[in-house]
Design goal:
2 helices; flat; 68 residues; mainly alpha
């Protein structure tokens, strides 16, 4: 049980270190917030369009009744 508590404490320390580093980055360059907010939307648009053009990945038949 002590090993579990130690592992949880170590994990918490690592999470805190990563969060602290990210907060420092955002304080240094506030434009990062805008970039981080917009980037997922861009990925959805780009990859959504690409995946819409690729047939046969989902296993769902296309309008013609066949995949591919």
């Amino acid at each position: 049980m002590a090993r579990l508590a130690e592992a949880i404490m170590e994990y918490g320390t690592e999470v805190h270190a990563v969060a602290d580093a990210e907060i420092r980055k955002l304080r240094h360059d506030p434009s990062e917030i805008l970039t981080r907010a917009i980037q997922p939307a861009i990925w959805l648009v780009l990859f959504g369009e690409v995946m819409a053009q690729v047939r046969g990945l989902s296993g769902i038949p296309c309008a013609g009744g066949h995949n591919g």
